Here is the input.
Amino acid sequence: MSNLAPAVVQAGLLRVLHRAFVQARNLALKGDCQHLYDLADTCELLPELMAHWDESTLGRIRSILSEYESNHPQSGYEYLSLLDGDNSPMAPKGFNILDNQRDETETCS
Here is the structure.
């Protein structure tokens, strides 16, 4: 039996994954294949890590996201802030399983 991530972490990771799909779509439209590859490489492990949670998992996830942000500082997406539940007015909206609500998000500009 697997140990699932705590609900508050699940909410943050769902925000991260949702935003990653939005960014992936935008990168595909721009034809930025290397950046798209890096994003997919970063996010592909997150669902598995969510399903096999232990005391070290959050640190591993933070490290993965931090490395991506370091390699792509101009991407405009702050995945660590999404993970941490940034509720500032400028924070992107997304899924919030804790409040059982879904906000609309912006799409390609």
In short: The helical segments are 7-30, 33-43, 46-51, 57-71, 79-83.
